[in-house]
Amino acid sequence: MGRTVLMGTPVSGGVAMGVVRYLDVDYDSFIKEYIPTDKDGELARFVLALKNAKADLDEILSEGEKLSAEEEDIIDMHLMLLDDVGFIEAIKRRIKEGLGTPASIQKAVADFKNMFEGMDDEYLRDRANDVVDVGNRVLRKLLGMPETKVEGENLVIVAKDVEPALMAGFSEDKVKAVVLENGSKTSHSVIIAKSKGFVTLVGVDVSKASESDGCTALVDAKDGSVVISPDKGEEDAFAKKCEEYEKEAGYLASRAGDPAVSLDGRRIKVAANVAGPDEMGKAAQMGCEGVGLYRTEFLFMDSEDLPDEEKQTAAYRALLAKAGGNLCIIRTLDIGGDKKCRCLDLMPEENPFLGYRAVRICLDKKDMFKTQLRSLIKASAFGKLGIMIPMIDTVTEIKEAKALFEEAKKELRGEGVAFDEEILFGIMTETPASVMMAADFAKYVDFFSIGTNDLVQYTMAVDRGNGLVAYLYDYFDPAVVRAIYTIAKAGKDAGIMVGMCGEMAGDVLAAPLLMAMGLDELSMSPSVAPEVKERIRTCRSDDVDLDKVLSFETAKDVREYLEGLLNKGTC
Ligand code: PEP
Ligand code: MG
User: Fold this and answer.
1) How far does the centroid of ligand 1 lie from the alpha carbon of residue 416, in Å?
2) Which of 70, 464, 491, 506 could bond 524 through an S-S bridge, CB–CB 3.0 to 4.6 Å?
3) Ligand 1 test: best mutation among 295, 330, 458, 480, most atoms within 8 Å of CB?
4) pLDDT per position as a tens digit, 446-493
5) pTM of the model as a whole
6) CA nearest to 105, candidates 34, 4, 12
7) Is residue 336 lining ligand 1, measured as CB closer than 6 Å?
8) Which residues are catalytic?
9) What CATH class is the domain 268-568?
10) At the fourth CATH level, which superfamily is domain 4-25+148-233?
11) Does 502 sit in the ligand 1 pocket, CB within 6 Å?
12) 282 CB contacts (<8 Å, ≥6 apart)?
């Protein structure tokens, strides 16, 4: 493909150079189009898909010199799985029972994945991802989907969309950048991309790059450009830019462990937003002090069946154990909206973000919620835990959730299970109702965490994933800034902790404003923590004239004021 320049909206800072992997991975639409035959025909199709999947892997192995020893091991492991009688028979049995072939593969993969995840041995636990990769390869063969290799190094993923679970599986060692057509700064796959440190752009017309697989790409998340097949001079100049960026990142990383204390001595806790315990190593390395948001829905999204108490307790315990005694705020299930979950079988809705979501589901499916609460309480024996309920709209919801929390504790006491009696109980403030009711809500909880991703969406009545109305989606809009102030003030007046875990918390421009509003904790993708910490260290907590900012009438005014402070070096 010849030199092509695409433009998009930057999500994370940084620059990256790599090889394009153009992905066309929309399993659901291929499954919808799949026309089944009779059972014998389906069995034959499955056997053929298996054979073709093996042939793919054999071909990759035959190009041995391009593979690292580790990659060779992984492919050997995948070939072994494709020969595993138990795995193959589990799929065939379901096909014979009349479950469609794609669903039979997905079900067997989910069962095997769960089995591996439940193993004590860490090596075997890690094999759960291999099962998913192998199952997907067979599925692609069955459905006749184009094969895109995500193998290789220095990859720039270019795709219309990447579902959150797939994004979560991309390795930080291999992927450098992600260029998407759909998705917004706060869609969930994009949040994952950011947390993995991928240089990320959204809103890019990727149809112009459909022939770019294997080409070199220069991705610049400062100006939002992607250059595919650059000329030599351009590539050399960009390599220098990457070097400088790495140097700057290295400097920030070297200071990441220092606390975020402003010039006048205000200490702000910088915590991590994570999707699971695996991310704790990176969070610590980036200087995060504990966790301000663990999105537990990823435990549920990965799984065909609802995760049981044992599985959930193990995940929460692993997180707490890795936090070195720092507070970990674990959010209860926030499924719905753009986060789908096979194990819950949710009905499609006209307006999913305004529908059956988060605490509304939990208070409806009380057994499921209780299992999560029990798991959390059990895990609390291994660290400092805060439980956080998302999407709270009413005092009644808080009371009901709290009553179930107390009930779960009582049960566990009765069962003689040891746990921490000082678990913090808090809520996300992310709806206009929570702004209006903040002073009342504060009477019932230990902390607020401001979820700006949804607060912007609901305050401005603008779908957080819809590019057409993205111009209205701005956390610097005065309506949102005033909403944040109202929540922060209500929390501070009541003497409870106020944090923020929406994407605004990781924006260096916002840091002095949030500090001026008295926030105690900012929780963010670990990759941006060193930069935010450094910004706080160069500010005074009273640098921002709050009355002035609260009087602004446009987002532009707010932004320009904060940019002005930055450029003047006032903070
Ligand atoms: C938020 O809404 O700001 C938030 C952190 O939650 P999520 O992005 O998972 O909806
Ligand atoms: Mg939210």
Assistant:
1) 35
2) 506
3) 295
4) 999 999 999 999 999 999 878 788 899 999 999 999 999 999 999 999
5) 0.75
6) 34
7) no
8) 188, 501
9) alpha beta
10) Phosphohistidine domain (3.50.30.10)
11) yes
12) 172, 197, 526, 527
